[in-house]
Amino acid sequence: MYILKEHVHAETFAKNSRFLSDLFIVSSPEEAKEVWHTLKNTYDNGGHIVYAFITGPQGNIQGCSDDGEPSGTAGRPTLEVLKGSALTNVLLTTARWFGGTLLGTGGLVRAYTIGAQEVLAKAVKIPLVPMVKISFSVPYPLYETAKHIVLELDSGILAEEFTDKVTLCIRMEKKFTDLLKEKFNELGNGKIQLQIEELDLLSGQKL
Question: CA-CA distances (angstroms) from residue 107 to 10, 16, 104, 136?
Fold first, then answer.
């Protein structure tokens, strides 16, 4: 699976009707609908803003809306194109400005399909990598070694607190969790306790 790097849009036309398609990064159906509501209050087309979204680790949370277009002519074709992109945590919207000529149901399906295809052709995709946040404390003599282990596993240090011991908060790829446990068990003789929290889906970009 992939996620979108940044917002993109594309403009297409069909019999003088203008179609403006956008791709947004979202993390939930609720966020997708919030973005859609914002567009409804922003765009001056006075009509339809069709949408489709996909969220979740496996892209298994999906939804779409024809937003007043004839049933099955807009939202569903948009979602079908989006499903073929291997993207998740993404919202695709298409706003239509009527050009004076009716497109018919077949014309609408083609127009919304082309709009979705055009905006997806501009999308920059980033491989999706499950991430975790880990907190732990070590005595001062073990601090430098622990920090070296963390950086060796290509993890990012989010915070450090120095009191009677050193407490670190890091972010790392989930797949390295077992290896970190193993190295810390050796370092601290099983006394270094890790608090692990799964994060929302993030990209493979380094911190």
Answer: 18, 12, 5, 59
Low-confidence stretches of the chain (pLDDT beneath 50): 204-207
Residue that has been written with the tokens 């004839």 in this structure: 70
Identify whether the C-beta of residue 57 lies closer than 8 Å to the C-beta of residue 31.
no
- The pTM of this model reads 0.75
Contacts of residue 16, defined as CB under 8 A and 6 or more positions apart, other chains included, come to 99, 100, 101
Q: Are residues 77 and 118 in the same domain?
A: yes
Return d(Cα 125, Cα 127) in angstroms, integer: 7
Domain span at residue 158 reads 130-203
What is the per-residue DSSP string for 50-102?
Answer: EEEEEESTTS-EEEEE-TTSSTTSSHHHHHHHHHTTTB-SEEEEEEEE--SS-
The number of residues making up the chain comes to 207
How many domains are there within the chain? Answer: 2
